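forwarding from the other thread:

> can someone predict this with nicotinamide-adenine-dinucleotide?

sure thing
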Amino acid sequence: MVIAETELNAYEMALAQLDEAARHLKDLDPGILERLRYPQRELTVHFPVRMDDGRVRIFTGYRVHHSTVRGPSKGGIRYHPRVDLDEVRAMAMWMTWKCAVVDIPYGGAKGGVVVDPAALSLGELERLTRRYATEISILMSPEGDIPAPDVNTNPQVMAWIMDTYSMHRGYSTPAVVTGKPVEIGGSLGRLGATGRGVALCARWALERLGMQVKGATVAIQGYGNVGSSTGICLQDMGCRVIAVSDVHGGIYRQAGIDARELARWVRSEGTVCGFPGTEPITNADLLAMPCDVLVPAALEGQITGRNAGNVRAKIIVEGANGPTTPEADKILERKGVVVVPDILANAGGVTVSYFEWVQGLQFLFWGEDEVNKRLEEIMARAFNEVWRMADECAVPLRLAALMLAIKRVHDATLIRGIYP
Ligand code: NAD
């Protein structure tokens, strides 16, 4: 049975993207290409956690390494009720491409636990995290595999993972995770790094298209780490955030929403909804909002064949991983919407994670200006390389970014050779 493209799951989507990029690349070794279609290793763990009422609950978690050819594997850990192995596989593959696009010496990994963390007490969350970290510690190490935050995980969760790993070792091992609090070896600038990179890409895309950055209107789906830091950076660049949504609903104000005040509101209220001076909207309204820049910064599979026709943004800058399905990509291309793809747009997070890891290995820490300057240099180089590839090959930016990344990983694999 042929599956409609709108029904592709995240892994099928990632494979479809790989195949499409491979079709455009000449001189790929078919054996190496086949290798890149599979994760290198996958770990599934089922583990017990004692809940506050004394009962024991069993949770399921994953850690997948897609590739370790260009360096240790790197990728976030997601806590979400809908996490499954295929989603983790897809995100691990996207991490491989992302690290290659920005040309940092990492392979790709991802992890996840099937859980709704909002339903756990802080103590339960800590016990779950420490036990999951113990279960995946057979794969994790500063030289081998370095986790980071993703949806519903944060610096505190990274601190528990780092502490658990360090307790097993008998000494502190800060470089085993990134996205840690600064107090225990985190990097200045890491918390807002993904959003900063997204905002820079939005600015450069506006400039390339001859549009004004000052006063450009922005709609953001998801106002967690990535969405809020993107909103704040874009506001600081002079853009106007007019609509924001999250899992509970959305808000709209044509005159502009104060991105910083909204972040404070979300910290105290747990949602963007009800922010004073705004009108309520739905997530569907947000994705169809007339604006210059739309930033999906929630989950994958949000802009699909069903709703891409409604998009009225001129530019989409993907803060989230995999927010646009391949079918939606085709519709957006026909409509002339420029899509700055996830593996480029949200690579600021892994880039500063790389800085954090380097600082942790050297026990030598940089100032925030240094971090931001180096981040901008790396993002600018990658953005320009992808834009040039898109121009030269007359392909959309996603395909160009994938082609650039896949070629780099392919070549590295070929040079290293097939063991034994
Ligand atoms: P987060 O948990 O901090 O925030 C997620 C946001 O999305 C929340 O506002 C939530 O309410 C909203 N959301 C969830 N489901 C939604 C739905 N169905 N409709 C609308 N909004 C919804 O997560 P984050 O770290 O900001 O990650 C967001 C995305 O960015 C993910 O795709 C993640 O993989 C990607 N990403 C994160 C980082 C990072 O450094 N944190 C780096 C690169 C990519």
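Residues 294 and 300 are 15 Å apart (CA to CA). thats all i got for now
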